[in-house]
C-alpha cells in the first residue's frame, strides 16, 4: 500500500481494480474518474500501458468484476456477464498454450507472447482466482469499508482487508460497546 492515491489490499490485481470503485470510507470516491487517474493506477500497479485506455470500457469491465466479487463473497455462482467480460478481454491476448511442471504435476497454461496490457492482466487475475479452489473472495466487514480481498490463508480465516486499518477499528468498537 505504498501509493497514497490507491489502496492495494486485495491481494489480487483484479480486486485492487474493483476496489478503485469502492473504498474504505462511508462515501467512497471513484479512484479512476479520468484517463490520467487510470494511467496512474496502471503505473502504481506496475502493469503494461501501451495505448490510450478506453475509460468507459474499463469502468464497464470493473462493474462486471465487482458483480463477480459480490457473488463470490456471497457464495453464489459467478455471473455469466462477468465470465463473458473476462473471456472477451482474454481473447485479445496473443500467446500459446504451454506445458509446465508444478509440484511434480504437469499443467497446461497460457503463455503470453509479451506482458499483458492492464485490463488483460486484470482479467487473468480474475480468472486465476476463479479456478483456484484455495482462494476465497471476501468483502471487508470493517466499519464503512467496502473493499474486497482474496483470502488464500490455509484456514481461510482472514477477516479484514488490513488488520491495522479495519481490524483494529472493529476491535476498538467492540471494546467501547463492552464498557458502556
Helix-strand string: HHHHEEHEEH
Unreliable stretches (pLDDT < 50, length at least 5) are none
Main sheet attributes: strand count, strand direction, barrel closure: 2 strands, antiparallel
Number of helix segments? 6
Number of strands: 4
Strand content bin: 5-15%
Short note summarizing the structure:
This protein is an alpha+beta fold and 180 residues long.
Molecular structure report:
With 180 residues, the chain is of the alpha+beta class. It has a domain at 13-133. It is built from six helices and four strands. It has helices spanning 13-18, 35-44, 55-73, 80-91, 118-131, 163-179, and strands spanning 95-102, 105-112, 136-139, 148-151. The strands form two sheets. Strands 1-2 form a two-stranded antiparallel ribbon. A hairpin with a 2-residue loop joins strand 1 and strand 2 (105-112). Helix 3 packs across helix 4 and helix 4 packs across helix 5. The chain is globular. 27% of the residues are buried. The model has no long low-confidence stretch (mean pLDDT 83).
What are the SSEs and their pairings?
Blueprint (H helix, E strand, L loop, with lengths): L12 H6 L16 H10 L10 H19 L6 H12 L3 E8 L2 E8 L5 H14 L4 E4 L8 E4 L11 H17 L1
Antiparallel strand pairs: 1-2, 3-4
Helix pairs in contact: 3-4, 4-5
Amino acid at each position: 500500500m505504498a501509493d497514497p492515491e490507491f489502496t492495494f489490499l486485495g491481494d489480487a490485481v483484479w480486486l485492487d481494480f474493483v476496489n478503485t470503485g469502492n473504498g474504505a470510507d462511508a462515501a467512497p470516491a471513484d479512484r479512476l474518474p479520468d484517463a490520467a487517474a487510470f494511467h496512474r493506477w496502471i503505473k502504481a500497479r506496475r502493469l503494461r500501458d501501451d495505448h490510450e485506455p478506453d475509460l468507459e470500457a474499463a469502468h464497464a469491465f470493473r462493474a462486471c468484476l465487482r458483480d463477480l466479487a459480490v457473488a463470490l463473497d456471497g457464495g453464489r455462482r459467478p455471473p455469466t456477464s462477468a465470465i463473458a467480460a473476462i473471456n472477451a478481454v482474454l481473447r485479445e491476448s496473443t500467446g500459446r498454450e504451454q506445458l509446465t511442471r508444478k509440484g511434480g504435476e504437469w499443467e497446461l497454461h497460457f503463455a503470453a507472447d509479451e506482458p499483458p496490457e492492464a485490463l488483460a492482466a486484470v482479467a487473468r487475475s480474475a480468472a486465476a482466482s476463479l479456478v483456484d479452489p484455495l482462494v476465497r473472495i471476501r468483502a471487508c466487514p470493517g466499519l464503512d469499508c467496502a473493499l474486497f480481498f482474496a483470502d488464500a490463508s490455509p484456514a481461510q480465516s482472514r477477516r479484514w482487508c488490513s488488520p491495522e486499518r479495519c481490524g483494529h477499528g472493529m476491535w476498538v468498537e467492540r471494546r467501547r460497546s463492552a464498557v458502556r
